[in-house]
Amino acid sequence: MKALSVALLFLILAFTSQAATLSGTVRDSEGAVIAKAHIVIHWDRAGSEYLGNNPGIKEDITVTTESDGKFSLELPPGFYDVFVTASAFTPHCEKIRLKDKSKTLDVKLTVSPVATKELD
User: Fold this and answer.
1) What is the pLDDT of residue 46?
2) Theoretical Cys-Cys bridge with 65: which of 37, 49, 61, 84, CB 3.0 to 4.6 Å?
3) How many other β-carbons are positioned within 10 Å of the β-carbon of residue 83?
4) Which CATH number fits domain 2-100: 3.30.2130.10, 3.40.190.10, 2.60.130.10, 3.50.50.100?
5) For position 115, what pLDDT does the model report?
6) Nearest to residue 104, comparing CAs of 112, 96, 113?
7) Looking at residue 16, what DSSP letter applies?
8) Host H or E run for residue 5
9) Distant-in-sequence contacts of 108-117, Cβ < 8 A, 24+ apart
10) Which pLDDT value is given to residue 87?
């Protein structure tokens, strides 16, 4: 299924005259990078009315940060919900707008209070 999503994304980008790069780094509250954090990109189709001709992506895309906490991917311009999560951290969600250029999204995750408490 992931291969199909990636293939679909490349097909969309091939027919889209403009593409934008979304990249960034995921860190903890102390500034240390978080490897293997999961980033889910969800296209907000409501933005299509605002942007006009915006094909977007039809399925969510998931990427994982490298050992240096970095990630990067190409997307068509549009509005997206970006959900970032890692084991033992509180998830982060943010709405972004990608234009026809690169956007850097640096995310700082905090340790989940549930992960730091003992169960009764």
Assistant:
1) 76
2) 37
3) 16
4) 2.60.130.10
5) 64
6) 96
7) -
8) helix 2-15
9) 108/26, 108/27, 108/28, 108/29, 109/26, 109/27, 109/28, 109/29, 109/34, 109/37, 109/84, 109/85, 110/28, 110/29, 111/28, 111/29, 112/88, 115/88, 115/89
10) 93
Q: Kindly give the confidence (pLDDT) of every residue in the chain, 120 residues in length, as a single tens digit, with 9 standing for 90 and above.
A: 555 555 555 554 444 457 889 999 999 999 999 999 999 999 988 766 666 666 678 899 999 999 999 999 999 888 899 999 999 999 999 999 888 789 999 999 999 887 666 555
The two three-digit tokens of residue 16, written as one number: 């889209």
- Structural domain boundaries of the chain? 2-100
Say what the alpha-carbon torsion angle 20, 8, 47, 51 is, to the nearest 10 degrees. 60
Backbone angles phi, psi at 108, to 5 degrees: -115, 120
Kindly compute the dihedral angle of the four CA atoms of residues 25, 26, 31, 35, in this order, to the nearest 10 degrees. -100
